[in-house]
Amino acid sequence: MGSSRPEPGAPGSALAPAARARLLLFFASALFGLLAVLARVASMEGLSAPQVATVRFAVGTGLCLALFWLRPGTFRPVRRGLLVTRGVLGGLAALLYFYALSLIPAGQATLLNNTFPVVAVGISYFTLGERPTWHLLLALGVTSLGVYLVLGGGAVGFTMGPGQWVGIASAILGAGAVTSIRALRATDNAPTIFFAFTVGGLLVSAPLAFGTWSLHSHAWIYAMAAGVVSFAAQIFMTEAYGALTVAEAAVWQQLTPVASFLWAGAVLAESLSAIGVVGVAVGIAGVVYGSVLGRRPPEPEEA
Questions:
Q1: What b/e readout covers 234-247, taking b as 16+ CB neighbours within 10 angstroms?
Q2: Is residue 208 part of a domain?
Q3: Which domain holds residue 196?
Q4: Per-residue CA distances from 272 to 28, 105, 146 (Å)
Q5: Which of the four, 94, 150, 199, 268, has the lowest number of CB atoms within 10 Å?
Q6: Is residue 235 part of a domain?
């Protein structure tokens, strides 16, 4: 008797992986938002940004090694050069993000960092041959307006400080890291890609983690919790990129700054002005618009 289960590649079977990927990105966004708050609290408790990053990456590396030991064969590197690129770019982006978290409110740092999807569309022009459209240019203008409203908080005397510039730099590097994930998911699994990220991040952050380390137990608890949360969030995100395009994935990832503001409000009592709230909405709308419509559709295949 024939089975009612659709064959791989059939239209009916495509729904389940995509729905699973969307759910993974939903949880990843919530966890990334929590990660921002945990890292900021660890910094407030006395750990420097490189120290927080070092603890985070050490925990992630340890969890990956445990996974590889429990499930032999999980570590399967294929495109080793691209894995190195993912590790270096992702490690630098995360380190700068932690620097931003130590300098400015978690919500601001997360919003700036999460402009990376629009930047990634621009990078894809050079790395993947994708031509940007006028939608991308419009999205960049809208996103810039949103960022201005958030960072200015509605005040007249708006200035860009070191924390804001660091956050922007983390987004640019993060865009390169996301582009490498897109390419890697065709050949490498999520744990292998994440392991490259943790090792690269550890090599980047550990040499900068000099100075006196805080002895406050709360600092270590929050930093280690950030490592555990990051492990889950990164695995969820990387796995989802195997089933969704970057454009659709970016839509879901814009929940991250929203989650960060919610976590920061609950844990750190950080708040925004009314204009700042509007800025969050405008910024997210711009990033989503550019991520969804900023990529030129593929050329139809000739018959």
A1: bbbbbbbbbbbebb
A2: yes
A3: 21-293
A4: 24, 10, 13
A5: 268
A6: yes
Angle between helices 246-253 and 217-240 (to 10 degrees): 150
- Domains held by the chain: number: 1
Interval 102-156: pLDDT, tens: 888 766 777 788 778 778 767 766 766 656 567 656 776 777 677 667 655 545 3
Number of H helices, E strands in the chain: 12, 0
- Residue pointed to by tokens 């990529």: 295
pLDDT in tens, 217-273: 889 999 999 999 999 999 999 988 877 766 667 767 777 777 777 787 777 766 667
Q: Half-sphere exposure of 271 toward its Cβ, with a 13 Å CA cutoff?
A: 3
In a domain, 15, yes or no: no
Torsion of CA 179, 180, 181, 184, to 10 degrees: 130
Has residue 303 been placed in a domain? no
